[in-house]
Amino acid sequence: LGLLQRRSLARGARLLQRAKVASRIASLDRPSITDELAPPPCVRGVLPNGLRYVVLQHAIPPNRFEAHLEFHVGSVDETDEQRGMAHFMEHICFLGSTRRAELQSRGVGMTSNALTDFQQTVYHLSVGSEHLFDGLAVLAEVGFAPEFRMDRIEKERSAVLSEAQMVNDVTYRLQTQIIGASHRENVIHTRFPIGLESQIERWTESELRSFHGEWYVPRNATLWVVGDVSEDRVVQEVERAFGGLPGTSVRGADADPWRRDEGSLFRPPMPSRPVILHNYVASREAMALGAPSGESRAPAVKGWSRELDISLATNDLIQGMQLCWVAKSPLMPVTSHEDLVTWLCTRLVVEAVRLRLQTRWCTGSSPCNFHCYDSIREGVSVTTLTVMSEPLRWASTAQDVLQEVRAVARLGIDSEELDLIMRMTMSKIEETAKAQPWSYMGTLSGYDAASTSRDIVEALIASAPAGHLLTKADAFNQTLQKARGQIDLGRVNEACVQLLGHFGGVGEPCGRVVVSSPAFMLDEVTGRRVPIGLPDAAEVSTAVRSITELTEEEVRSKRVTVPLALLPEAAPVAPAQREELPGGVVKLTLQNGMRIRLLVHPSTPDGPSQSTMRLHAPGGRAADILQGNDGAVQAGLMALESSGVSNWSREQVQLYKRLHSVSADFRALPNAIETDIHFAPSVGSSRAALEWLRCMLESPQLDLQGFVEAQLRLKGAANAREKTMEGKAIQMLKQDMYPRDPWLWDATLDQVNRLTLGQARRAAQAQLGNLGAIELDVASSALPSMSLSRVGSSMSHEEEAGGISPPVEEDGSQQAMADMRQMLEEEICRTLGSLRAPAGAPAAPDVGAMQSTAAWSGTEQRVHLPDADERAFVVIAGGAPGFWGPGDSTWDVATKLERSNWDAKCAADPLYASTAMQLMSEAMNMRLLGRIRDQLSLSYSCEVTITMYDGFPGGHWICKLYAAPEKISTATRAALDVIRSPGRFPFVDQEIDASRRVMAYREGQAKQQKGYWADKLRPLPNGQVGAERIAHERHLMETLTADDAMLAWRTLNGVEDPFVVQATSGSPMVAQMMPRGRMVERDPRPQPSSPASSASSAGSNMDFLD
Which residues pair with 871 in a beta bridge? Predict the structure, then answer.
């Protein structure tokens, strides 16, 4: 053994004795943590028939409730001849309820859905509190009394088979390969919920009824209700809706109805329940340090494995080689403060590993991911290290990653690293708790908070089985802040060995390594498919064992000092103009010409927990086309994501942003670029975000390393489009629709390969260097319990020692908003007020005259891709107006006679076009779902999406459809028939009312997203912005009618002569069996004598592309 290994083993022996003593002491005095961290105050009960119920009153959102009926049956409970039956049963039950359909049709705003997993099937709905009994009665019928009509069974059989086609993408295949290899010792590895198509096709009504009768009984179900309704009323209505169901409560040895069987994924015992045990992985060194070593502390243990098991598989859709190292360990409940400290130590180790990996690969294309999480669906705690690389470099990439991970296991971390990761970890938890003090947090979700009734009921269902801690967010934060005082460097380094020992370095590697490889590569010169040889198990074993270990000196030399600030202190530069707009929006025009819109809003339960700045600058992909280097600005922006700035290295900048909870997302749009910068609603985080933005605009270090990494990411995306049905079909569709507008396509592999660092740098600098053209929208929440006090020219953050209450006092909320607004104004003027454009920055090309021009006549294309599985996908498309109403020149000529008063309505209201089009598309999707899925059973998923560009006149509609290859042609014609149907059967008010409710629900969901308020800061032509714009949107939505939806439908171009691309995958036989000839019936419009395409002002600028 080497010196470092001997030291590690000697330290392990010393720590073993210490761990045993600590274990004996802990066993004598382990006070329950619930004495300090109370769980949610739920009301629990059991009906005489055995049904359990859990009820919690929670008024977010107000006047609504969530009800989830969980049946403790999933795919693991199926026999060898029932693979997929649990999921099939979910479809039959959910759509076999007349009560559900009736309540849905009443227009009460109900949303409902269902899901099936390994261990459960859940039916859930959300509706107004006044419909409590009706909603519960729906769930009672869905679960216990569905209709088993043969016509419904056959329709759902087709839907399930279509769903199997749709989900079979690259992500699903990777998941099944990894989970299958990780659970060879139990039935999970062959019990994926989607099932086997060969079995689904032949089940009879009798077999399905038998499955339902065995598992869908009250004693195997739990009802969860959370919402704005009193617990007493809920219990009364539960007894009324479910009390009459037949059944018996738990008796005998299983008399406790709340007992969970650890040997069957922590579910209530049932006679036919399968036993599911696991082989846990632990290195000898980790075991010596006190890891579970017997069944008393390791539930559901089948055995302990110290072997390295290697699985190999090909995946026709994956782009590069993927190596996933998996280790399973027991789920351990957090029942004491000692357990909570242990949990926190594990989180710190995870952050330490991520910190090391991020320091070595400061890029958005990092070759690895490291995770440690509790998987309730599998009943284990899982640690995964995933390495992605080019197929020919997999061994060296994996060795580089393992070198860093094993160094943490062997040598541990130092005090400086511990301080940094402690600050990162605790700040995330603290920021979440303070942003949403009314929410719940716990040991299962970590940094995430459950705020709404939907979030909380899902957290309760997930946390209950294995005893995960769930408590009020402020209490969770305060207790963890105390727990950090019990953690020292020695304890964290012991946790490093326990969590990482199986990767080797302190002993022999063990666990399960799953290698997924593509069957072929695309030759970048010829475009041909070149076969790839899959490495064998011996090669993989040798590669992951042959690691050149880092020394302490080498690790120390890689340490990165995190800057305290990116900019020196400076006085704010007064703006050239300041204007207060309605709704609390402040508009600033800086001395350099930058335009800023600032909105501070109160923190609300239905709003985002993070704040956002959105930078918008003209240019985008259109500017690339004008300069003849398509993809350059996208490469430049990708490189900026991980670049250094000013005098700070890329490693320092990435750690600085991470420490202050700052993240950035760059996007290259057709005629603009956008950057979303997310930050916490605090002084430190907002200041860090603005300092980074200033440095990024003024002095970015866009170097060769960042460019090469960005180019590799773009090449991967281009290859993915060539290898997947969806990517290939969409790219072909865009090229057919916009043959003269390549700025609306995605960059091809050939274009990406021709890019240079100089092109990427000039493109990014040109579009970001024109400060007078930049707009910055800043939207931040303000917490009432946070006060901002000034100390000289700096700002400090003061917080009360106690918890934070929801914003209920108007005066406190208004003062907090005023303080936050003033602080942000000062910081904007300090960081951006003195900014000047970089010297020598190239001028950005003017894209103001660029306009899209769609082809006049529709086209049809077919494409087939080789694959191991047979699938089919089709896209149908045509033209649409732009966001503000007008469309491109082709649309203008083609729809002139159809759009009647469309132009007048759009001129009168700037949001009319987008709102009416959205309303129409929702109504159209309801028709598609009802016809294609429910009536004809041709596809599980069929929907229309509409793209309306807001920077130039133009847009398009696209219908995407998955189906079995033998049904795809019929499904294509049927979908197009539905899209044309308003011409024969106009939209009616009932459809519009239902669509309006769906849009209101989606608006509520969107409001929780990070960039919601930044979207609303873009002013309308009439000057409305912020809350004033939101109020106008809601009013407009309420006033639109079926006539408006029909008017929007008439503005769609190409309905009678669409663009169609049909993609299939599988063996060559699949392509040969597809019907030949025309895919759809067409009624093309006569092309005008002066082609619409010649009307494009951009066309003359791009003749060189012809």
Answer: 1065
Q: Which residues contact 22 (CB under 8 A, 6 or more apart)?
A: 290
Q: Which of 443, 384, 485 is nearest to 177 (CA)?
A: 384
Q: What is the mean pLDDT of residues 489-505?
A: 93
Beta-carbon contacts of 21 under 8 Å, excluding residues fewer than 6 positions away, are: none
Q: Which residues contact 459 (CB under 8 A, 6 or more apart)?
A: 440, 442, 444, 445, 450, 470
b/e per residue 694-731 (b: at least 16 CB within 10 A): bbbbbebbbeebbbebbbbbbbbbbbbbbbbbbbbbbb
Q: Helices (DSSP H) in 304-378: which residue ranges? A: 337-360
Quick: pLDDT tens for 88-137: 999 999 988 899 989 888 878 888 999 999 999 999 999 999 999 999 99
Query: Per-residue pLDDT for 805 more than 60?
Result: no
Q: Is residue 533 scored above 90 in pLDDT?
A: no
How much of the chain is in helix, strand and coil states, percent to nearest 5?
45, 20, 35
For residue 408, the number of C-alpha atoms closer than 13 Å in the C-beta half-sphere is 25
Query: Please, which pLDDT band fits residue 787 given cuts at 50, 70 and 90?
Result: very low
Count the neighbouring beta carbons within 10 Å of the beta carbon of residue 251. 10
Q: Vertex 715, ends 711 and 718: CA angle to 5°?
A: 140
Indicate whether 789 pLDDT > 80: no
Q: What are phi and psi of 781, to 5 degrees?
A: -90, 165
CB 461 within 8 A of CB 508: no
502: Cβ contacts below 8 Å, ≥ 6 apart: 281, 282, 283, 286, 327, 383, 509, 510, 511
Residue type, 389: S
Determine if the pTM surpasses 0.85: yes
Query: What is the C-alpha separation between 124 and 377, in angstroms, rounded?
Result: 18
Half-sphere exposure (Cβ direction) of 482: Cα atoms closer than 13 Å: 11
